[in-house]
Automatic annotation (TrEMBL):
GO BP annotations listed: Golgi organization; protein transport
Keyword Coiled coil set for record: yes
Protein name: Component of oligomeric golgi complex 2
Organism: Lepisosteus oculatus
Coiled-coil region list: 377-404
Pfam short name (any one): COG2_C
Length: 465
């Protein structure tokens, strides 16, 4: 290109230095009544330009070769700048119009095979994205804004469509179409990744906490070692979180891309930016299509993980029934354990996900696990009540003190201790939820669960001697 610029520079100097008089005579540049002007002839258009084009075509046949897109871009850009400078030497708008209508002018522009150049760029840009997606949900190199390689390459490809040394104004419509195709292909890629991941048919009661390590558990129901299940490939917690984070990041950056495209199109006189905005809005909607499925898998796993510990409420009666265990003053350890998966996710991904996303996951997961916790506690209290009534009937039948319910310190019966423990557990559970930045009023059935255990505790207190 530097050599080409030198050639063009000498060509532009040729007319002012060697053909000035001819240009003035034929172009009417001499403003004198006595000047002899050749009417109907434009020296710059009819003599100089055709010879320049002929010389370029004969002596520089490789000038128009699009085989190397980077070199082609440089040669094309330098050549178009030369054309603009040559037009300024024509001296009048009428002369410029005649130049642009001249067959050699059209021939020169047609020599530049822009469709082939675009096809090479298309193969280069789209090919890099396809290559990245063929690796699946591989992690991106550290330090970038995206967590998945496919996401990082997508954003790089989108920017490249409109970047200097790639984008050409005459190909604006093609690069715009490619932009939408890239976004659509990425949406399809995410959909395929989710659809290929079959949910493992497994025991839903056994769950493990989320892990950010490479060996993290999949966001499907975990199975007991003794249960039979079909083994299928499942997305890891890290992969699902990465998809959510990348889609959210891409949604935030699309307006930046829109401004870049708008600036490019303004330079070529395009003004209908409403169509542009609507198309990008559709692309963003398509990208968001996978989010509900991702959210569902994450929250289901979190719920299973939490309830895997909360179901230990069913073991509370065993701890107090005929054991003479002291009256408890604090919550059971299983409550803290139940919230560890949530704390772990927040710790691992607080710098990756927006707080609002994490809070929404927690709210949905806790609502579901609380619903199951409610069912477990209600079943325990119902069982306690039945046991209590059975013992009372037995006492009345035998009419002897030996059939009475054993009492320990404080006069609380075993059933009363069970009710008190469950009340302490649920109240502590609510306190920990609030410490996580959530309101218990946002957790479905929590108020009903709290009323249930508080009512049971009041009953235990009323029965205390």
């Amino acid at each position: 290109p530097s050599g080409l610029q030198t050639v063009y520079g000498k060509l532009l100097e040729f007319v002012p230095h060697h053909c000035r008089l001819l240009r003035e005579v034929t172009g009417g540049a001499i403003s004198s009544d006595k000047a002899d002007i050749v009417p109907g002839y434009d020296f710059m258009v009819n003599s100089v330009w055709p010879e320049i084009v002929k010389a370029l075509e004969e002596r520089l046949p490789s000038l128009f070769n699009p085989g190397n897109p980077d070199a082609f871009y440089e040669k094309y850009s330098v050549s178009m700048e030369f054309v603009r400078k040559f037009e300024r030497q024509c001296g009048s708008q009428a002369s410029v119009k005649r130049l642009r209508a001249h067959p050699s002018y059209q021939s020169f522009h047609n020599k530049w095979n822009l469709p082939v150049y675009f096809q090479l760029r298309f193969k280069e840009i789209a090919g890099s994205l396809e290559s990245a997606m063929s690796e699946g949900l591989q992690e991106a190199p550290s330090g970038g804004p995206y967590r998945l390689l496919a996401s990082q390459v997508l954003w790089t490809s989108l920017l490249k469509c409109w970047a200097e040394r790639v984008y050409l104004p005459l190909l604006a419509h093609r690069f715009w179409k490619l932009t939408l195709q890239l976004l659509s292909r990425y949406s399809t890629f995410l959909g395929e990744a989710l659809n290929k991941t079959a949910v493992t048919e497994a025991h839903k009661d056994t769950a493990k906490p989320l892990s950010s390590s490479a060996s993290s558990s999949s966001l499907t129901s975990q199975e007991d070692s003794g249960s039979e299940a079909s083994t299928t490939t499942a997305l890891s917690a890290q992969q699902l979180v990465s998809i959510v984070a990348d889609v959210d990041k891409l949604q935030d950056q699309i307006p930046q891309l829109s401004e870049m495209i708008k600036h490019r199109l303004e330079l070529i006189g395009f003004t209908n930016f409403e169509i542009l905005s609507d198309s990008l809005a559709d692309a963003r909607t398509s990208l968001s299509g996978c989010i509900p499925i991702l959210n569902s898998r994450v929250t289901q796993h979190l719920s299973d993980s939490c309830y895997g510990y909360l179901k230990s409420a069913a073991e509370v009666p065993r701890l107090y029934r005929r054991t003479n265990k002291e009256v408890s003053t604090k919550a059971s350890p299983y409550v803290d354990s139940a919230l560890k998966p949530l704390h772990q996710l927040q710790s691992d991904y607080k710098d990756v996900l927006k707080p609002s996303i994490i809070q929404d996951w927690f709210r949905v997961a806790l609502s579901d696990s609380t619903r199951r916790y409610y069912e477990t506690v209600a079943e325990v209290l119902s069982s306690v009540k039945k046991m209590e009534e059975s013992l009372k009937r037995l006492k009345q039948a035998r009419k002897t003190i030996t059939a009475s319910v054993p009492e320990t310190n404080g006069g609380l019966t075993d059933d009363g201790k069970i009710r008190l423990q469950l009340a302490l557990d649920v109240e502590y559970f609510g306190e920990q939820i609030q410490k996580m930045g959530l309101q218990t009023s946002d957790i479905s059935l929590f108020s009903s669960l709290l009323d249930l255990v508080q009512g049971a505790r009041d009953r235990a207190s009323s029965q205390q001697p």
